[in-house]
Amino acid sequence: MLLHVLGKKCALISSFVLMAIMFVIVMFFVNPLIDGGDGFGVLKLQLSFDKNLGIEIINKWGEAGIDHFNRWIFTDYIYALAYSLFLASLTAFLVTKKGKGTYPASRLVVSLAFASGVLDSLENTMELLFINNPYEYSESLFFLHSLTALLKWAAVAVVIAYILFLLTRKNHIQARRLSDYP
């Protein structure tokens, strides 16, 4: 049922539009505003794994960067929802089109797309807590934050790989129909 709802063109197009808008906002406006550079300082923080390195990164942002982070973090939550919905929708669309809706892997990958958004939201929350109290923040929790970010990126990579796999395969339903003819 969920595959059929997500797999509709309307869901795919609307989730793509939302994701594209949020991508531009987060990557080209918010993140550069936070780190005062190209915006990759936020990504560096996600994957730094070391609390002291994290503190160095946010110290480079300065008070203005931290203030911008606090004011604009809601955009990253929206972006997490948007890209996870788009990835789930694109997967569902391709799975439905290719006749692979009953395959357990297909359902798992749609769930994994949503899991990436949940992991991203969890990571955002841990970053918010860290940025507002970096010296008292637990080193173990900071490591867990970076591990959560890594798992998010891994989930996104698996979903994209599955989407590419689906794009390179012939339509299962069409192949069956063609084989019915002598």
Count of all domains: 1
Instruction: Output mean pLDDT.
Output: 92
Enumerate how many helices there are, as a single number.
7
* Model regions low in confidence, pLDDT < 50 over at least 5 residues: 178-182
Distance between the termini: 35 Å
Tell me the total number of β-strands. Answer: 0
Largest sheet, strands/sense/barrel:
none
Radius of gyration: 19 Å
Q: Which geometry do the CA atoms define?
A: elongated
Bin the strand percentage.
Answer: under 5%
Helical proportion, percent range: over 70%
Helix-and-strand structural type: mainly alpha
What does this structure look like?
Helix 2 runs antiparallel to helix 4 (about 50-100) and helix 4 (about 50-100) runs parallel beside helix 6. The relative contact order is 0.14. The protein has one domain (about 1-180). It is built from seven helices and no strands. The radius of gyration is 19 Å and the shape is elongated. About 85% of the residues lie in helices and about 0% in strands. With about 180 residues, the protein is mostly helical. The two termini are about 35 Å apart.
Ordered list of secondary-structure elements with their pairings:
Layout: H1 2-6, H2 9-35, H3 40-46, H4 51-98, H5 104-132, H6 139-168, H7 172-179
Helix pairs in contact: 2-4, 3-4, 4-5, 4-6, 5-6
Q: What's the gist of this structure?
A:
The chain has seven helices and no strands. With 182 residues, the protein is mostly helical.
List keywords for this structure.
182 residues; 7 helices; disordered C terminus
